[in-house]
Amino acid sequence: MASHRRPKQPSRARVTVLTTAAAAAVVLSANAANAAPSEKLTKDEVKAKVDKLYEEAEQATEKLDGAKDKQQKLQKEISTIQDNVARGQEDLNKLRDGLGSLATAQYRSGGIDPSVQLFLSSDPDDYLDKASTLDQLSSQQVEALKKIQDKQRELAQERAEASDKLKDLSATRTELAKQKSAVQAKLADAQKLLNTLTAKEKAALDAEQAQAASRASSRVDLGNTGSASSRAAAAFAAAQSKIGSPYVYGASGPSSFDCSGLTSWAYAQAGVTIPRTSEAQANAGTRIYSESDLKVGDLVIFYGDYHHVGLYAGNGQVLHAPHTGAVVRYESISDMTFEFGVRI
Fold first, then answer.
1. Is residue 298 within 8 Å of 312, Cβ to Cβ?
2. Residue 233: partners with Cβ closer than 8 Å, 6 or more residues away
3. pLDDT per residue over 221-279, tens digit each?
4. Rounded to 5 degrees, what angle do the CA atoms 54, 233, 258 make?
5. CA-CA distances (angstroms) from residue 206 to 158, 201, 277?
6. Distance of alpha carbon 25 from its chain centroid, rounded?
7. Which residues are catalytic?
8. SS3 of 343, please?
9. 3-state class (DSSP) for residue 116
10. What phi, psi does 94 have (nearest 5°)?
11. What 8-state DSSP symbol labels residue 247?
């Protein structure tokens, strides 16, 4: 006799999965049918986006430079404080040894004063605050105790200062890593955009930049540095010797530079120390708000947040390290947003 079994029903879970998969397939199919084909950016559109990314990368680079500069200063300060603490501890040990010698002399002459004996295994602060104890000490012992007390307070203060600076250093290192990551991300995005260009388009972009640099160079009167101070002229000459050197974020010479790295290096060759970042360089001298009043070698600050700087080259031109992918070159001031000049 044939068996009449009821057909097995699919489980609820299986039905749910199949239903969800079917719905997703319909959605994907609809999206595929309605999606517009991706449009390739033109060469000029890529250049505009890349230029914007380079500007953002340079903003992060200047913050990176500031964090690196702060880190170096903190490390020096911490090292100095730690050296002072070590020397102070040696002085404190000598003072304690001296007081111990006094106690030894007392013992040999008839016994250690109870207050001194107690001090040798305790904190002197408790006893200096008690007149009854002071009355039992000789003037020499009182002086020794006060010196120890002062030295202990000094060491405690220096240790606290070192501790604060170490915390600051840790925060600065975190900021350093953050800004480095920001720069690298912007540069990676720019490179992805550049990779969408054909070889012909890339060559055309390079030719345009070379022509612009050539035009700027032709407008510079290389012999016209008479109005500049001797230090500014020397700094400008140093920067000129680096024309063609590559821009590298965070670099300050002698073979590669970022914008403030070039200007700080150039002035260092003239025997003048200026701050490392463009923002700090904006406050390093007398501000010149009119382009017509600029002299060769003056710093030229660009953009509202002062994230770019170059050296005035005369005739409306600036000598600077522009951005990643470019080299130290001349460029028209009008190509960027001029804020003011700074005369060192």
1. yes
2. 225, 296, 297
3. 655 555 678 999 999 999 999 999 999 999 999 999 999 999 999 999 999 999 999 99
4. 20
5. 56, 9, 29
6. 50
7. 259, 308, 320
8. strand
9. helix
10. -65, -40
11. B
